[in-house]
């Protein structure tokens, strides 16, 4: 049956002939079938259109050419429906298309195509697709797709996933919320900072930082004493990127008292990034740390802050037993004296 005859039959006769016609065309040419299906989805009543969509979805396989044609079909029809008036018929056709996507052999790519095309849609149609995602897609895949959509309407279903007992689902929801960037998700995200899972707590801190940096820095400072050891290092790192000078006393205390040399090193890096003048004295004390990494980072931080009162302490460090520490001290001295050198890609004048 030719494409022209199939369209004539499909549009003008009994619905059963429509289904037979689309099936016949599929057997001859998948590309023609998608063209027929596109016309039918526009012209048929919703009850008939959903049957057409099912027939198309069941016959499209995972071969390269059919996958290409199918994704083009999805993208084209969705964009047409997004641009069309939000009538009951068009909204129903959107649901029909989603049903077809669920039946296809490469549903995840198809759903991504739908969500991408929907970025310019009105709130009503966005909410319909999100509801369909929740009903028809595996939770973790649904979470990733919602994050990819970056629509504020995705926030509520993503927040619901934060209470899941599945750690991977919680992490996926946190990553998706970080992409959506809706600050209304901050309170629920902050609750996971105390999670016993190291990965969940770290992702929660990262999402909090992305959603509201100022609020996150205050919360990190307040929670630091109660945080598990595996999380404290991450909080120290984030505090150095929050540009909140209120974090300097805490970071200075970590620099001088932490038993973990990696924590002390991160604290030195963070106070250097903050350019905090009130951290100069703790950094000078850190120049005698047992760890060469801490001594080297403290030397860099003093150069980044730019306080010349640290010159004498840095000059003494140029004879350090470890060559990297001596080099770091020499570079900072040159910075303080008005010369800039590249060093490890960090610090003022060393980018």
What would a concise description of this structure say?
72% of the residues lie in helices and 0% in strands.
Give an overview in words.
It is built from 21 helices and no strands. It has 351 residues and is mostly helical. It has 3 domains: 1-137; 138-211, Alpha Horseshoe (Leucine-rich Repeat Variant); 241-351, Alpha Horseshoe (Leucine-rich Repeat Variant). The protein starts with a helix and ends in a 15-residue tail after the last helix.
- Following the backbone from N to C, one meets helices and strands in this order, namely HHHHHHHHHHHHHHHHHHHHH
Structural class: mainly alpha
- End-to-end distance: 67 Å
What is the total tally of β strands? Answer: 0
Provide the domain count: 3
- Residue share in helix: over 70%
SS field, number of helical segments: 21
Strand percentage lies at under 5%
Q: What's the average pLDDT?
A: 76
Question: What overall geometry do the principal axes of the alpha carbons give?
Answer: elongated
Could you describe the largest sheet, including whether it forms a barrel?
A: none
